[in-house]
């Protein structure tokens, strides 16, 4: 190595501290690895396996020995090798630990092998890498990709590594990719070629690439990437919009090429790929204390035996003949023998510590998770997803939830935005026709339409057969109506777009507004709709991509997909005709379709319903319709025709706005980084040159797009954002009253009024504003912007600053109100969760009014509730009010008033309440509130609320949300639930359980949570019982063998007993027992309350089980003992009946506990007994002297031939179980638990049961509406607050609807 | 795999996966358990009566011969140092002791179940494997070697073998008539035929197979000369040895010595006066134990056992009482809803 190269090397290393530098590999092709410039960066081969073939055994053992339970086992086994102490043959004592270790090892090995297989498959995938020698891209495997290679990815191929995009087939240098593999978002994301490369329209020549790529070190941020290209000291900045991510799929672009910057494990997707989370459940934590109790118990028992042994030894004045001296003929002293005996007993009674419990719990939870994920009720057909259990070991926590923290948007609501109203230049347009149509869609329609509507909501699969079973229908032609019906039917097909239903996206333009526009052609309206159409990041997708994606999703021929249907039937009559025919036949006449025909309005001129004009196979403009028109597009021109646009929006709001704009004729036709094309109502097509996009962030709460108007050549900035983000930036602020032009002030005031009204109606509001920028101002700003763009450190902040600089002096155009409809069954779900004793909180980022409105509509708040609103500017007021309410509550601290208190907290007040000094009072107040609603809460605040309650109240919390802003909260809660919704998968990634609808929470908690908790709690208790009951047999025997640590049961039988005979029943019990049926649990949510207060697993339950175990073991020991006392029975022959009665008792004990017996229960329970006899008989027949001094030969045969054996077994089992059985029976009659009652009702015939349920519910409602009934001493008028509010209380607003 | 590509993730709608398997849901309440308790109670009382009567019909005659009391005929033998002592105990039967009569010796406070004692034997040696004759397993320690010669059979159990012998005489007209004990078949069949094996004779001599070994320390005779009268009853297959090697479960136990079945006594022991001649070899006073012999006839339920019969009766009655209690409870507290069902 020369000096210079050494220098180079050090320089490389230094610079690589903070950033990564790489160059093209091509000049170095064929050189040895050590001469490769990028050799220090990870290759693209991935290895997610933990072990290799050789390292498996040592590594796996090493890992397993990290668990203290295994160490305990090994310690016991080692102890057994000490001659003075050993209880068994040393080798035999190794068997349990070996079995446990090997079972775990097999499980680990299997998991690892599957990872290995998937790795190998990934590594073996092919891709195109540029080769210098062949001067072209050649096919290589993924694992051969190195940093610095040039890779070409063709359309629909998966990207092998993180690639800096340098060339695409698109003339605009754009490439689309789908990130579904990464975050589940199915909309296309646009990526651009690094500036400066897009101009090369000719084919890309990697050999000419001589720049140095400088970028940041690998990190896991999917939305952030920074760096620059350096060539001849000229730097070109690039960012995340130039990076193709590994694992994503290239769509819509014939090919894309670039240089690999991160490979293999350093790619963003791999860095994001964290494993399943491990949480320790509450029950398990509690169980660990019980294990400690067992340890104590064990020590006590061992001490008793040790002391007993020492005393026993001293009772002999001389040496009995049966004492065995040491090899030198001496005897160990009594005290020392006692010490040894202590250790021996620990070995003998080791099963007391239920080590196998841990393994069993794991198995049980695997089973529980299996059943949860298998639940068809938690399956969402629309998205084809079932519930996911991402954390495998907290299933039972679902049964103990006390507080639920829910996000609003996307969680309680659909997050499917529907444009409802708008206000332009201070004039409000209520869009009543549209509202009527939506209301009509929402279910207020007669039966005919309901059919359509349901098809729309639930995707039914129109089978091809069904469509074809009316051949006469296929020939019939029904022009005019078919398109409408067709589009409605296609709406049923599942779609994972932001919009699944075109009916909801469609907007009927407001009558007046359209007229106004026609009359005046006024500029404000034009501007408003232009802003709506272009001020967004919606991507217009072309058909090829759509079709390919559709193909991938629907590769079955049986299910009807509009596309395939078309492909098959095109030219022979359209699919729509057939379908509409079959529909017509099914539902009678459809000749009068859904009435939404605004015949006397000019609406028909806008392309919305162009389908009916253009022909039967032209549907409305909607995503689904795109598919329908594919065939024609393929056959015809590939130019962008107006009917074929499909919008790929990253947020549903944007899509709603673009669709609304389209309804008014402002159709977004194309979006590239450089320009946006919009068609105006007049039919003119305008192409705006995009100068810059100031993207949305949650701090500014707005986004802007700067364009150059094609005609006026003005530079215009359109801004869209939350009212708070726009209003403060308006041109003539309210403070500056003198210079205010009266008109714009009026507009602002009127708009604000309208906005408030929208919010009150529960609509999401967005404001639009405009600014004309002078050429000079823009140039000056542009320079700053460029600097910010190429900065590496603090780039984000700089960009934000520049954006702020630009976004001022805006002119308000108007605002929109978008409806986010509640998900189905949300009120019912919340109601049920409440009845289950769960406090439901909503933490949302929305406006206070919107949130309150939604809260009322989802029954979170009730009309009768007394609602306190915290909307304070300063802390003092906050404190005064808090104390006031608390005092008031304390004074009237009756239960009724607590039940109906609601709390609404604004974000700012929330942060004050979360401060240390107010925390305690806040928590105190919260515990007395029925519902709490936090608005304008930041993600951090959400998680702080969760943490606060969790810490202070020591309650089980569950957080549920769907968006990235809920991630903190989900992680802070005991149980995090993610909703796989419209906003990507980040919440799901962070969650423990992922569901697709909020309503699924009801069954997940009330049924599965309850079941899992009850099952596991019972299983654990039973497990403790089982071990104690069995091991105590040995303990009692010590009193009759001179406390010498003898086991009267052969050691092999003991191993079999725990490993074979009694292992499967408790596991089956933990997975499958069903105390109350799902139906009853859903009908009576109150049953859930037991789990919240740990009713199934109390310390008392544990001790009762242990006491019962002691009693039963006494019976199992002493009945055989008295039967055989004084006889000539030998030691192991005595052990057989004891072992057998113990088995019977333990199995039948479980039989008493099992609440429902299915086939599986019978098989396992009866099977265990049969297996016991078969294995015992075979073993004791085969083992003549197989493992001396163990001596099981022919013991069992001797016993089963003896009638006394059976008499002993019957008597003992009955005596042992009599108390428990009797108590259960008495309890079942005298003080039946709610669960027992529910089970009893469940067994009634269905109509009786339902009648009872109805009566019960009406009784409950009666009680609820007159809470004074329960405490008759304080009659109260529930519609009024308990007393006149005092001074601080008067500041509270009582929200009444 | 489902044929519909659309719903790849749709769970199977089976009774098992949806946890809807038909289930029997027993519910414990007073009303339901009444028949069960009655049934168990009556059955138990029946079994109890049968057991009790059977047990009552079993006759047991026990004779303690430890010799702790000075008046006892075996007092002079109970000293530690006395060898080859013989003592006699007389007893009389007023009526026929129905046969077959089993004759047991019994020891108390004798812990054959003591842990170190229990493992002190070599199963391989006892199964006739001669390699273990010269090299007994270490379990036998310290009864592994004696004077550098391996002990056969080694170990503490064999070493402590009970070596009192008994002769029973019926006094007929003043003269003693020996009642023969049948010592055959008192061990487990499997022990005699399968588990224990004698070494194959060397050069036709059984004793030669034991060459190079020594007898256990406490033994007076070698294993191959335990029973001079019967060649087949020697070595490890000696019936008394086999009985002894099957360790007693509890510290007070009895072991079968022989059966009285032969000739005149096939009907049992006739009424009359008997003398039991004991060759008293086995010391028990050192650990406070006692020795006894037991005459007993047996039934299908083995020896006399009052406990089981009484227990069945008690539990049976208890169940009946419980059934009555449950009836009262049921009458008073039955679910009000039960009648509308």
UniProtKB/TrEMBL annotation, chain B:
Name this protein carries in UniProt: Cell cycle control protein
Transmembrane segments: 32-53, 310-331
Highest taxon of source: Eukaryota
Organism of provenance: Pygocentrus nattereri
Record keywords: Membrane, Transmembrane, Transmembrane helix
Location of this chain's protein in the cell: Membrane
InterPro entries in the record: CDC50/LEM3_fam
Family assignment from sequence similarity: Belongs to the CDC50/LEM3 family.
Cellular component terms (Gene Ontology): endoplasmic reticulum; Golgi apparatus; plasma membrane
GO biological process, one term: phospholipid translocation
